[in-house]
Amino acid sequence: MSPKKIAQSLQIKNEDIIKKLLASFKVTLDDSIADIEKNGLCGDNLHKLKGVTGNLRLENIYNLSLKFEHEMNQWNKDDYEANAKLIILHCKELLYQLNKILTL
Fold it and tell me: How many domains does the chain have?
C-alpha cells in the first residue's frame, strides 16, 4: 500500500489529501479492532469495515468483510472466534502499513 497507489485508484492527485484520508481511516480501523475485540464480530462492525476499506480500495479486508457478511449466519461460536481473530490480524497488518506511511 502506498499513498501514490491509493491516490491513483481514487483519482486524487494530491497525496496530502490521501494522507489525511488515511489518518482518518487509521482512527476508524483502530476503533473497529477495539469493537471486535470487545464485542466480537457482528454484522454492524463488518459492514462498517467493509465500507471504509471499499472506499479506499483496500481489497483484501474489503473482500474478507464481504465474504464474512454473507457467511456469518451459518457460523458456530468457534467460527465467530476464529474469523474475528483472522480479520483482526488483517486489520493490524494494515495498521502497521498505515503507521509506516503516515510517519514518512
Answer: 1
pLDDT digits (tens, 9 = 90+) for 46-81: 999 999 999 888 899 999 999 999 999 999 999 999
CA angle 82, 33, 23 (to 5 degrees): 145
Task: Report the C-alpha gap between 42 and 84 in whole angstroms.
Answer: 9
Report the C-alpha gap between 55 and 57 in whole angstroms.
6
| Contact criterion met (CB below 8 Å) for 85 and 37 | no
Q: What CATH number is attached to the domain comprising 38?
A: 1.20.120
* CA gap 95, 104 in Å, rounded: 14
- Whole-model pTM? 0.85
DSSP state of 89: H
- Please give the DSSP secondary-structure letter assigned to residue 74: G
